[in-house]
Amino acid sequence: MPEIDEDELLADLGLKLTPPKTSSRTPREERIIAGFEDIVRFHQAHGRAPLHEGRDIFERLYAVRLDQLRKLPEAQTLLTGLDGPGLLLGAAAAQADGDDLDEDALLAELEIGVDGGIDAADQNDITVLRHVRSTAEKRAAEEIADRTPCADFALFQPLFEQVEQDLKAGVRKTLRFGRDTSIAGGNYFIVGGQLAYVADVGDAIKAPNGESDARLRVIYANGTESNLLRRSLQRALYKDDTGRRLTDPDMGPLFGDAPEPDDIATGTIYVLRSLSNHPFVAEHRELIHKIGVTGGKLETRIAGAAKDATYLLADVEVVATYKLHNLNRTKLENIFHRLFGAAQIDLTIEDRFGHPVKPREWFLLPLHVIDEAVERIRDGSITDVVYDPETARLAG
């Protein structure tokens, strides 16, 4: 059988073999075009160019890519036909650390090798982060800090409990974050629905935009912590509709000429010791004190102590009293609870009916510290100190 030529056979069938088209563009040029098309699609979806600040990580990646394309020598010629919105001609928003990059470094930012190589997988998807090593990703990774379990949360739990009591008593208030964006050690915030405490502020560092920043240790009420940047916490609070700053305790005027609803003309601060036979109380009797305020006779107030779980179902002895005038009872009691919250004893007893009760008004601290606290209340310096359980003293 005579050998049939393929071209002749196709001609007999009325078919014409068309050679496949070959692209006139290099792999590098194809990659540049594909990356720019992503940015154009973003512009079509949002009506603007991608931005660096206050956006999600993918938009920041698009913004960095656009910055690099604006500085790439062949980009203007290669992409002019695709740049309907005029993105390449827009105001440069390049990062400072990219100003002195050479062409090879710019191509590396665009995931393009100088040999024209392209990643085989996801070559047209900028949102695949495995191969992206842009400035924006590095900055974003620096800002994102995963929460981890707080190993010493027991030290902070009493603080959160006291803050919750302060909020209920009106000693603290919550304010919408935005007017005051400062963040300092000791501040409390509500972010993402969680109460957060700034336990520590690290040394100042320089942010990419030239502003000062710092690494924070933030403790959350759910027992976790993170070491995010201050600017990251500020952005999270600002973008969170429920983000709040907690004010410092509002002591207000404890004494003064203007009467308030809870003022008493003459009052008594009293300090009691329990005569309970409870093992823990008996062991630490000289250090366990109840601090209270009354506008009436103290004898009347403690007459039924042995039948009252508040007094540990035992008689008490009065170890100190302080007479004060024009005293606001609620504010004063809140001061003592805030100041000595870390020294509050965790004790459970059974009431007369066998029900467990946890009295909250007893503190493990020496009497001389209470004396000093009262003197500081009188001279107005109480707001300048905190109680340190480790040293059993007031510290400024």
Molecular structure report:
- With 396 residues, this protein is of the alpha+beta class.
- It has helices at residues 6-12, 27-46, 57-71, 75-79, 103-109, 135-143, 153-169, 230-239, 279-283, 298-301, 329-339, 367-379; strands at residues 148-149, 174-176, 188-191, 194-206, 212-220, 224-226, 244-246, 263-274, 288-294, 316-328, 349-350, 356-357, 362-364, 386-388, 393-395.
- The strands form four sheets. A seven-stranded antiparallel sheet has the order 1-6-5-4-3-7-2. A four-stranded antiparallel sheet has the order 10-8-9-13.
- α3 (57-71) packs antiparallel against α6.
- The longest helix is centred in the N-terminal third of the chain and has 20 residues, at 27-46.
- The termini are far apart.
- Mean pLDDT is 75; it is low at 91-144 and 251-259.
Strand line-up across the major sheet: 1-6-5-4-3-7-2
| Strand runs, count | 15
Report the radius of gyration as a whole number of Å.
35 Å
Mean pLDDT: 75
Q: What fraction, in percent, of the residue positions are helical?
A: 25-40%
Following the backbone from N to C, one meets helices and strands in this order, namely HHHHHHEHEEEEEHEEHEHEHEEEHEE
- Morphology call: elongated
- Give the N-to-C terminal Cα separation: 109 Å
Number of domains: 3
Q: Structural class, please?
A: alpha+beta
- Tell me the major beta sheet: 7 strands, antiparallel
Name the poorly predicted regions.
91-144, 251-259
**Count of runs of 4 or more consecutive helical residues:** 12
Strand content: 15-25%
